[in-house]
Amino acid sequence: MLLGVNIDHIAVLREARQIADPDPLDALSIVKRAGADQITIHLREDRRHIRDSDAENIVRLSALPVNLECATATEIIDSVTDLKPHRATIVPEKREEVTTEGGLAVTGKQKRLKRAIHQFHDNEIEVSLFIDPTTESIEAAKALGAEWIELHTGKYANIYAMLYGNLGNTPYAIPELDLSRSTLKKMLLEELKTLRRLSCDAAEMGLRVAAGHGLNYQNVKEIVEIETIEELNIGQCIIARSVYTGLEQAIVDMRALMLR
Ligand code: PXP
What does pTM read for this prediction? Predict the structure, then answer.
């Protein structure tokens, strides 16, 4: 199973002081040495963490393929096209959100999305769509010609956090509900079943399947067992652990949990 390490949170730390330190560029060689397969970054419209110069340097200097997440605003799509990363993952983006709260609801009719996919393909950039786990979105992603889908695991991560304690690291749709353990267990199994079924369906359609958001050292093991998920993109928990263990060890620890 492939691991993409999302290094945005290194830039988050830098932007907290608006200085030059820590530089996400310094992570490239460490991520590679630790055995990860991909660098993932998100060039947000508001440039709140990764800046254009970061993205430019990371794409230019990374020995690992770069997966660049972006929304469909024309200015961003043009910037990403110029950067020419290995892959562009199209995500929904809201100014006020703390992190990407949900996946795209792909209908196949969104003009901007179609235009973005065509533009990336014309420039030999493979395309992934970060989607909520629904059949409609998967079928539409296939019809639009995306090579990859990335299933949003935020709901799964949240149910897991409610069931097993305060282990969650995603603010995605946290319901203010007082649910019993047996209800939460059922919800967790249901969500895992959905992720398993949809990733199988997508793989049968010829799509490559990634997953991510809110995954951590506790909740990743059930996701690893879904054979049709080829890749995980994980950020927050790895960067958080690296404060104490160093980045290389934090990635090695995650890698060990991803062995099938
Ligand atoms: N995948 C996508 C498409 C994302 O937008 C993010 C968050 O930036 C991640 C994966 C990683 O999520 P987390 O930081 O919760 O591991």
Answer: 0.93
Residue 250 Cα to ligand 1 midpoint, Å, equals 16
Identify the CA nearest to 120 among candidates 80, 67, 70, 149.
80
Domains belonging to the chain, first-starting first, are 2-150+192-259 (3.20.20.70)
Residue 178 has pLDDT above 80, yes or no: no
Is 220 a pocket residue for ligand 1 (Cβ < 6 Å)? Answer: no
Q: Is 201 helix (H, G, I), strand (E, B) or coil?
A: helix
Residue nearest to atom 4 of ligand 1 (CA): 213
pLDDT of 143 above 70: yes
Within 10 angstroms of residue 228's Cβ, the number of other Cβ atoms is 17
- Tens of pLDDT along 16-71? 999 999 999 999 999 999 999 999 999 999 999 999 999 999 999 999 999 999 99
* Ligand 1 atom nearest residue 236's Cα: 14
> Which parts of 18-165 fold into alpha helices (H)?
27-33, 52-61, 74-83, 111-122, 135-143, 154-164
